[in-house]
Predict the structure.
Amino acid sequence: MSIPAVEASEVESAVASALEKCAYAVLAVSGGLDSMVLLTAASRLPTRARRNIVVATFDHGTGRAATQAAALVARQAARCGFLCVTGRSSTLGKREEEWRRSRWQFLHQVAAKRDANVVTAHTRDDQIETVFIRILRDAGPRGLAGLYAESEVVRPFLGLGRARLAAYARVWRVPFVQDPSNFDRKHLRNRIRLDILPSIIERKPGFADELLSIARQSAEWRRSLEALVSEVDTERDRSGGLRISRSSLDGYDNESLRVLWPAIAAKASVVMDRRGTHRAAEFTIRGATGGTIQLSGGFEILMRRDHMLLRRARASGQGWSGVSELRA
């Protein structure tokens, strides 16, 4: 079996180009095919480019496959000469969102310690699935941008399909662990990946490209909105909350504020749902000094004399523990 030279170079060039922009990089490697291709391609970079790369893997504690995957990543990282940081879940989550939250808490901590960018192996297919899911959940333009939204997370394979990575893996005999949960149809993403999207694309071949077009337009809309939000006077509070100048929001009507608030909240890494967005807009116009509204996710907005304060209303524990480092 062979792989076209241009295809092989496309995978490795994508990684080289992406990592060239990172002073330090933390490769998020789960042990699955896509992320193990990322690790393999990174290992083939020149020695100078590999010096500032760290591998991070997370054991969700969901069973034998998860443990095997973390062990595989640690072994392969050592063979490639990379430091490997391993995180282990302190609680057994049952939902995809719980796993995702714990994993990202871990990755962000590893990256923050080294002032590095997190690098993931998300593909074009992942973007298509993400946009489709967000359409089903009635997301607005911010959400529909999906993985095209500007972020500190680096995604070298976003322009490549999963099949390209699979071909690369076959030729270079990339070891990986197939997680059985990837075929469990109780998870929405799996049903979309395995059943719904293939059925739609079979009848409408251009459907995936239409989803990507929506995402690109939404990402452009987000960039325009971010430019507008940059004019809103905000600053971090000592407690970690976000202060928003009331005068910066003077003159905006309810509809405009419903567009602005999710982008403002994103500065504090807060995701606002539709109900919270409407409440925040109404509160901005009619809220009294000293008043408070509650948002989902344990956040609240307080109205002060000259500013509004977006902050966490209650503490929340981290969903991971037991970090260890392995050096080659």
Q: What stands out?
A: Residues 231-312 form a domain with the Uridine Diphospho-n-acetylenolpyruvylglucosamine Reductase; domain 3 fold (CATH 3.30.465.60). The beta strands are 25-28, 53-59, 83-89, 117-119, 234-236, 242-245, 292-295, 299-303, 307-312, 320-326. The first helix runs from residue 5 to 20.
